[in-house]
Specification:
The structure is a single chain. The chain is of the alpha/beta class and 841 residues long. The protein is 40% helix and 16% strand. The protein has an 8-stranded mixed beta sheet with strand order 13-14-2-1-15-16-18-17, with helices on both faces. A hairpin with a 2-residue loop joins strand 10 and strand 11. Helix 30 crosses helix 31. It is globular.
């Protein structure tokens, strides 16, 4: 399976700039994956690092780490994440920077002189916080602007006269003279770059530059730099605020200082990585982490070395490649990265970014380019991976990056073992698990003693072998025949049908896509898709070729969507936007119990038998019961937990107040009350065959039926044989029938979708679903989740009533069906106006 159950999928904390260009991965998922796939001392690699977060988690779990960062800025962030500086050393560096010489004075005082001003109230000299500049709409960001106001703080006036701490006043003659004499951008940049910076100081500077530039249009906020066709676009704002650079830098320092303190006080505690140059340094025990740039130093970090005799030098193997798929380049993200890199790290570092893309009007790279980028990274790491290693990629952003990752892996020869594509409303990222080309396909050959064997070429476990095309065809090599869209489409349909039958309920396109991708890989279609056909021309594609014809990602997505939604197959249908279900009656009859009902029963069974247990253990044990297409979403598991947990439960001690024996007795008693009420109404009654043997009042429920009712012919109600299994029935032959299904759970699949689906609807048949009041919210959740249940409710003339309200109604004297309406529904009228009804009733 692709997960151990619902874990905290919230992204990790990071600095504001990196929330935009490189969001941190969910730390809980990263930690769970490291524990699941590796042991102490083994190597974990991140091919597209976003600040060393995976490496930090690996070190905290006593693993070794390789982090190939995606950009120079994330490489700089990783320096702080992996080796947080001591706060005292950081403070000393800032003080030394402030006191560093600048002409005849210090750097801090020199910058303060440029912003010196007088209080408009008391005339005291002080340092201004900001200078407000006015920009004409026609002039834009590249034109000249004029200063119009100054913003400052005066402690003397605030203490003596009160008023706001932040004050504004127009500029006087001395202020205008200082503004005109202020140094240009080059001088300021040289000043800031001349400081004895460390990684933490550079991060502070990275946050200070936008606030001290024309991008600062509002107090404490900076607008995004916009570039079109290689030129900076004018800002829409009519003014900007020139913030004191030293004050902006101090704001950045406070931000970075708090970030470092949170790193040291976080769940992983203080982590200090020892950096090495390559994998060999990890094996020698000198280093715990190798840090490099994926675009530049990746090959050097992962290179294999040979001795003087040409023999490879033993080096540690990478057990797990874990991380997030690279973000798809876009113009906004590239502009922010280039602007920050150029200011903080200089021209050489900025040259490593794909800056040529800024010359275009937009940046929309094909998804095939993303797949090719991932293929190059997989090919780079493959020689150093262990045979039983795994590649786990967390993917955000829809189905396109999922398919791009899978196609990239197939291009590099990796096999797809599992794929869980997150639903659109799911906060957790999608998870892909791949096997390296030299790995053994599970389960692989084993002895009678369950000992693994090396696969024989062409035998079990050979990753180059896939299932044959026919039912009785032997396995064949992946490259035996070229890619066929017809065969792939047939495989897509079969996998989607089997997935829905296994789930027993509709599934989203994303849920189907994960299983479809795994099935296509098992049949060899993915490898054939990315491998050029033999004899195919190697030149550029024809001018008439579309993106779907040349881009493997677009081609695979188009094939999947066309197959599911096309008219060539008649076994699947989109019952509502984004959700698919079976249309063939034989397939529907062969479907399993809905996964929602199986999860609910698993939750109740676990809570009622395992005793008090923590929430984390509860989720892990529930997840261990389901896998593949049955893997439930987090929202369903939590809804079931809330429905069955006791009000005395805590996150560390989850218990239930439900008792199976007590619920069974309540169920029997309610059926008895329904039967007796039917007799009071002058109707004939019936109790389901499986319910008649329940013990009640010294006998059985069947004893409540009259002799003529015990062997009654129900054909006057309906010819469906399932009618005899309905929990309770009131009926008058040839006129009307009231069918009751009494459920103390919210498991609605059996009564609504199976039993009553075979009982035809009729004007004289009214159906009641009696539920326990504790299951109200779970029933509401399931109805909102399943279009099949909603359709069954509407077409079957169902009415929902809570068991406590039904008992209240049946206890009335005299009993009149006309008084039943206020008790019906998940939100009945009697609950909204109970006092008024009691007053006038």
């Amino acid at each position: 399976m692709t997960g151990r159950g619902p874990v905290d999928a919230q992204p990790g904390y990071t600095l504001p700039v990196f929330d935009r260009i490189a969001p941190a991965p969910p730390p809980a998922i990263i930690a769970a994956r490291i524990d699941l796939h590796t042991g102490p001392g083994e190597v974990v690699a991140d091919l597209f690092g976003r600040g060393g977060w995976v490496a930090r988690a690996a070190i905290d779990h006593q693993r070794l780490a390789v982090s190939l960062e995606s950009s120079p800025l994330t490489r700089m962030l990783a320096e702080v994440v992996l080796r947080p500086p001591d706060i005292r050393h950081l403070d000393a560096a800032i003080q030394g920077l402030a006191a560093s010489p600048r002409g005849d004075t210090s750097l801090k005082a020199w910058i303060g002189d440029l912003f010196a001003t007088r209080c408009a109230t008391c005339g005291r000299m002080l340092v201004a916080d900001e200078i407000v500049w006015s920009v004409d709409d026609e002039v834009g960001v590249a034109g000249r602007a004029r200063p119009v106001a100054r913003s400052y703080r005066c402690a003397v006036c605030q203490n003596q006269q009160g008023g706001p701490e932040q004050r504004q006043a127009p500029l006087d003659a001395d202020d205008l003279r200082r503004v005109d004499a202020a140094p240009g951008v080059d001088t300021v940049r040289a000043t800031l770059r001349a400081a004895p910076v460390l990684a933490a100081l550079r991060l502070a500077l990275l946050h200070a530059v936008p606030l001290a530039s024309r991008l600062s249009t509002q107090p404490g906020r900076a607008a995004a730099l916009r570039v079109t066709a290689g030129r900076v676009r004018p800002l829409n704002a009519t003014q900007f605020r020139e913030r004191n650079p030293w004050l902006a830098f101090e704001d950045g320092v406070r931000l970075v200082r708090g970030f470092i303190q949170r790193l040291e006080g976080g769940p992983t505690g203080p982590v200090q990585g020892r950096l090495g140059e390559d994998l060999r340094s990890l094996g020698e025990g000198v280093a715990t982490t190798v840090l490099g740039l994926g675009s530049v130093g990746g090959a050097a970090v992962l290179r294999t070395e040979v001795d003087g005799y040409g023999r490879p030098i033993p080096m540690p193997r990478i057990r797990l490649v874990l991380g997030q798929a690279p973000l798809r380049p876009n113009l906004d993200r590239l502009v922010a990265a280039y602007h920050g890199t150029a200011w903080v790290l200089g021209r050489d570092a900025a040259a490593l970014l794909p800056a040529d893309a800024l010359a275009g009007s937009s940046l929309r790279p094909a998804w095939g380019q993303q797949a090719a980028r991932m293929a190059r990274a997989f090919e780079l790491v493959e020689p150093t991976m262990a045979r039983d290693g795994r590649v786990i990629q967390l993917v955000d952003g829809g189905v396109e990056p999922i398919v791009a990752t899978v196609v990239g892996g197939a291009t590099a020869g990796f096999r797809l073992l599992a794929a869980r594509a997150s639903d659109p409303d799911d906060t957790a990222p999608s998870v892909l698990e791949l096997l390296p080309p030299n790995g053994i396909m599970p389960p692989g050959p084993r002895t009678r003693a369950n000992v693994g064997l090396e696969p024989v070429p062409g035998g079990a476990g050979d990753p180059e072998m896939v299932a044959g095309s026919g039912l009785f065809s032997p396995p064949e090599r992946v490259d035996r025949r070229p890619f066929s869209a017809t065969d792939a489409g047939r495989t897509i349909t079969e996998i989607a049908v089997e997935t829905l039958k296994a789930r027993g309920e509709p599934a989203t396109y994303e849920r189907l896509l994960g299983e479809i991708l795994v099935g296509l890989d098992r049949q060899g279609h993915l490898r054939r898709l990315v491998t050029p056909a033999r004899g195919a021309p190697s030149g550029p594609p024809a001018r008439s070729a579309t993106a779907a014809d040349t881009d493997p990602v677009e081609r695979l997505l188009a094939l999947t969507r066309d197959t599911l939604g096309g008219t060539a197959q008649r076994r699947l249908g989109e019952i509502e936007p984004g959700r698919w279900w079976l249309t063939d009656p034989d397939d529907v009859a062969g479907a399993a119990i809905p996964v929602a009902d199986r999860v609910e029963w698993a939750v109740f069974s676990l809570l009622s038998t395992a005793g008090p247990l923590p929430e984390r253990s509860f989720f892990d044990r529930i997840a261990s019961m389901f896998g593949g297409p049955d893997l439930p979403e987090e929202g369903l598991v939590r809804a079931c937990l809330e429905a069955y947990r006791s009000i005395k439960s805590t996150p560390d001690r989850v218990v239930t107040a439900d008792d199976l024996l007590k619920r069974s007795e309540e169920h029997t008693e309610l059926l008895a009350v329904i039967t007796e009420a039917g007799h009071r109404l002058g109707m004939r009654t019936w109790i389901g065959r499986r319910e008649q043997t329940r013990r009640h009042a010294g006998g059985t429920l069947g004893d409540l039926l009259d002799p003529s009712e015990q062997h009654a012919f129900l054909g006057s109600i309906s010819s469906a044989p399932e009618l005899a299994d309905v929990d309770a029935i009131w009926y008058v032959r040839g006129r009307a029938a009231f069918l009751f299904e009494v459920e103390w759970t919210a498991m609605l699949g059996e009564p609504l979708l199976r039993r009553h689906a075979r009982i035809p609807s009729d004007e004289g048949i009214v159906r009641f679903l009696v539920i326990a009041p504790e299951r109200t919210e779970l029933v509401r959740f399931k109805l909102a989740r399943s279009a099949l249940l909603r359709t069954a409710i509407d077409q079957g003339n169902w009415h929902v009533i809570k068991s406590n309200h039904l008992q209240t109604f049946l206890a009335q004297e005299p009993l009149d069906l006309g008084d039943l309406e206020p008790y019906l529904g998940l939100d009945p009228t009697i609950e909204r106006s109970g006092e008024q009804m009691a007053l006038f009733g």
